[in-house]
Prior knowledge:
Number of strands: 32
Strand content: 25-35%
Largest sheet: 5 strands, antiparallel
Helix content: 10-25%
Bound molecules: 2-acetamido-2-deoxy-beta-D-glucopyranose
Radius of gyration: 27 Å
CATH topology of the largest domain: Agglutinin, subunit A
Shape: globular
CATH superfamily of the largest domain: Bulb-type lectin domain
Number of domains: 4
Low-confidence stretches: 1-23, 413-417
Amino acid sequence: xxxxxxxxxxFLLVLLPISSIAQNNGNVTVGNSLTATDNTTSWLSPxxxxxxxxxxxSNQKDLFLLSIWFDKIPDKTVVWYARVDNPVPRGSKVxxxxxxxxxLTGPQGDELWTANTIVGTxxxxxxxxxxxxxxxxxxxxxxxxxxxxxxxxxxxSQIVExxxxxxxxSRQSETNFSKGRFLLKLQDDxxxxxxxxxxxxxNANDPYYNSGTVASVNDSGTSGTAGKQLVFNNSGYIYILxxxxxxxxxxxxxxxxxxxxxxxxxxxxxxxxxxxxxxKTFNANGSWTSLWSMPDNICLATVSNSGSGxxxxxxxxxxxxxxxxxxxxxxxxxxxxxxxQYGSCQPDFIQGCQEDKLGPGKDLYSFEVLINTDWPNxxxxxxRPYTEDQCKQSCMEDCMCAVTIFRAVKFVFGxxx
Length: 417
Ligand SMILES: *[C@@H]1O[C@H](CO)[C@@H](O)[C@H](O)[C@H]1NC(C)=O
Ligand SMILES: *[C@@H]1O[C@H](CO)[C@@H](O)[C@H](O)[C@H]1NC(C)=O
Ligand SMILES: *[C@@H]1O[C@H](CO)[C@@H](O)[C@H](O)[C@H]1NC(C)=O
Ligand SMILES: *[C@@H]1O[C@H](CO)[C@@H](O)[C@H](O)[C@H]1NC(C)=O
Ligand SMILES: *[C@@H]1O[C@H](CO)[C@@H](O)[C@H](O)[C@H]1NC(C)=O
Ligand SMILES: *[C@@H]1O[C@H](CO)[C@@H](O)[C@H](O)[C@H]1NC(C)=O
């Protein structure tokens, strides 16, 4: 009895430091799990900059997103998420499993998602200070990395190989994490491209941005100019590394130090790929600042022979100062889905040949003139030479006509009130 007490003290003294290290080295052991609740805990990186776990969705009560986020900033900006069809309900669970890696199950135990490790037995999960969540075997080989399975955001020190089919998919909207209409990929030929896709398939339209980092035609590719990797280096610079190890920078913008700023690059839900910075200082009310983005003008760039571009059908795209698009319905039209500002617009009036027959044609409609606006790829007639008045007249007499474009001026039909 007399000797038992010192032993116990020694045991405690040794145990306490170990347990506090175990909580802080980003190390998660097999068998550990997290549950989606209001006061859910998360797995933190040693520095505390990043957290892995469930985040409640701001606009959807009782729904959660399994994700990685910047944990020290008020925004808690999400940088990676498990791509499931729908956000998961309260009570869902993620478990670190030796054979299946990360396993996400619903409240009834139904499997919703797994981190696909393919081979090996998982020994640890590590939430690293770079924001990469890694699954390792007992020899510290990486079996799965969130950095190798990006969603819509890249972080410094993240490198994506050409072999990866698609690098990034945008989300549906700022708050809806379902797969959106835009993708970024490093093609087999080395070209980095941004495409719109025709959901629900991945079928891509012509690129609305391409880097041009392909093999040189002059020397049948021997100079190694094709891109092999998309690199976001530790200093925050993003470039395409060519086979000949030359760099093709995506931007010439000079960056602040990663010691003072967080960086991320996100394929936004509107198709604009943007690099942002955010001050690390705790007491300042920092926010994400856009450093550069591509393409230069998403409104012009996404014009393609299929799909509506960044705004929905019948919607008019205007570029804001931050190079992000603003989508507005023309007068006389309103949003098909009132909650989706970026969606399609429908006329508030009935338009068609039937209506024209019922009334005295010309009085049914009027013209709304929009300057510097075009409605590309929808022409069914091209009259030349023709004056502006002849154009208007022709449209008035044509019950199929909704828009006439006169050089850079567009007329939209609206019903007279
Ligand atoms: C994780 O923890 C285990 C046991 O506590 C330890 O053996 C391993 O080295 C740790 N891994 C890392 C990456 O810190
Ligand atoms: C978590 O929140 C619930 C109510 O939302 C509360 O009853 C419970 O005590 C909380 N648990 C912890 C560990 O704070
Ligand atoms: C997100 O958008 C998709 C596609 O439009 C829709 O099916 C889904 O219900 C939306 N999810 C939420 C949580 O609103
Ligand atoms: C290819 O050759 C043309 C004409 O000889 C030259 O103008 C062009 O710069 C060359 N391109 C490259 C990538 O070397
Ligand atoms: C990152 O890339 C930039 C531009 O190529 C370079 O100046 C810088 O030294 C690189 N930083 C690191 C850590 O490699
Ligand atoms: C942060 O914002 C709050 C409210 O917007 C303000 O009261 C506070 O002074 C700001 N702090 C700093 C350091 O700017």
